[in-house]
Amino acid sequence: MEALLQHFHEAVITETDVEQLKKLILQLAFQGKLIRKDQNDEPVSLLFTRILEERQRLIKEKKIKKEKPLPPISLEEMPYLLPTGWEWERIGNVVKVISGYAFKSGDFSDSDGIKSIKITNIGVGNFVFGTTANLPKEFIHEYKEYLVFENDILIALTRPYIKDGLKVCLCPKSYNQTLLNQRVASLRGLFSGVLNEYVFYYFNSPIVLDYVKNYSRTMNQPNLSINSLKRLPIPLPSYETQVRVSNRIKELFAICDSLKEEIKQKEQSSSIMNKSIFKRIEDYNNPSQIQDLQLVVENIKHFCNTKEDIELLRKSILSLAIQGKLIKQVPTDEPVTVLLKKIKEEKEKLIKEKKIKKEKEFPQITDEEKPFELPPGWEWTRLKEVTYNLGQKKPDKKFTYIDVGLINKEKGVISEGAQTNILLPEEAPSRARKIVKKGSVIYSTVRPYLLNIAIVNQDFKHEPIVSTAFAVLNTFNGIENKYLYYYLRSQPFIDYVEGMMVGMAYPAINEANFYKGCLPLPPTNEQKHIVEKVDQLMILCDQLEANIEQSKQEADKLMQAVLQEASSVKKEVLS
User: Fold this and answer.
1) Which of 228, 237, 304, 450 fits a disulfide with 241 by CB distance 3.0 to 4.6 angstroms?
2) What's the CA gap between 488 and 138, in Å, rounded?
């Protein structure tokens, strides 16, 4: 605990860290490390004597049944040794444990009756309210031994734990005097020397979770037997100490909750601020776009604290890049109109040589299709006007098949696994048809929002053939394929594609609409400079993301180290 207090702000930085801290508090509490020993407390042996006397009285009054005595706790069963004045005892010896009754499905109805508690009501630390299934009113007398009362501790016996923790909660006031269904157990304090709140906190501790995991029978799903539950060891001090431990837990949990809320509000405020500034950066009508980006870069630690923030920064960079706002224009660059004329001549030459097919021309771009104003020297053009594809073929020899699953969309490349995805012609899927070459840009038109886009940047021993799920773009001289790649990932083009998608289960954009998309085209030299600048900034983003991940890992390591330190008291005598 001292290590955590010394490095508090480094270790507890997320809501998950706060939950880990709560587990640590509970673990320390039931090791007797959260409070000082009070010499005036009565010996715990007197508590056990009173519990035994009360039990015998209740049996004599026929308020509880006499049960087979539980065996003493062996040293091997003790998770750790306790401080002086504390003793291990079986939970079944200090509270009443009831297992639910297997009511028939026909007993339940929506009509008025007695509420029932089912396993679906038991959550991790909270009661799950849902559709109420009632039992006949007369069952309250017939099955009175299965009645549950407010603040009884409830625990699921089938699949008693999930990733979030142990499924244990308190019975709420609205379910007072209800009937307990099968595979749920209730624990009720009957003895004056056992504090219900103390027991409930204990059941939320990692100690009980570990016990349940160890003693749950696992076939298809874990099951905890009622006998194993009764045999659970619980560390018991005097009643006065139970009260002080519970109060200390409550006090520290209040601090944790306050800290969690502080972290949550900070994250929300940060998120709102970040989304606002990045929205401004992507606003085409904002004259201060580049100044806003500069503000983010100069205060990067404040604006980019999460991977989501970094992703917003990447989007902003691309948005500014394809608007021509990341670099200065050079007046001496060859105008794009000249470049487009050269591309037209090159295209006619390829058609004449029958290397590509002549295709129907698209109409002129209207002002409504232009999402923003371009810098001087740039031109709007359609994708089809500056790219071409090599057509399709049915494989007739061994080939390398590239499907959507082989795209590394984060890096924009084809995964190394493609090199070994070699197929014979007779093994070719019906979708293996499109021809590509080194330098081709491929774009998945099926579920395009996943951004499965890549540049074919490697050589293949066997001819590469890609799936018909891809649109293939080969660039003419003067068009940088990396500039085209970045544009296809930018928000303006994403917005265009989303407006053209059709389908529900597998939304897609057809190729005619895809190639009809508009491209803001700068001069060739400017394309190169934009790509260089974006490459540099994307490397910066990658480094920032790596730093965030490293900081998170360091915080996680510190938290785990503290938890391990707390666990090291096992088998030590605490005094």
Assistant:
1) 237
2) 69
Residue spans of the domains in the chain: they are 1-41+247-333+525-575, 42-237, 336-522
Print the SS3 string covering 153-187: EEEECECCEECCEECEEECCHHHCCEEEECCEEEE
3-state secondary structure of 124: strand
Q: Which helix (H) or strand (E) holds 180?
A: strand 178-180
pLDDT digits (tens, 9 = 90+) for 401-428: 999 999 988 888 898 888 889 999 999 9
pLDDT in tens, 159-190: 999 988 999 999 999 999 999 999 999 999 88
pTM above 0.85, yes or no: no
CATH number for the domain whose boundaries are 42-237: 3.90.220.20
Q: Is the pLDDT of residue 309 over 90?
A: no
Euclidean distance between the first and final Cα of the chain, in Å?
17
**Does 42-237 match 336-522 in CATH topology?**
yes
Rounded Cα distance between 510 and 286, Å, is 33
Q: Which option is the CATH number for 336-522: 3.90.1570.10, 1.10.1040.10, 3.90.220.20, 3.60.20.10?
A: 3.90.220.20
Mean pLDDT of 129-133: 82
If we measure between CA atoms, which residue out of 33, 29, 40 comes closest to residue 238? Answer: 40
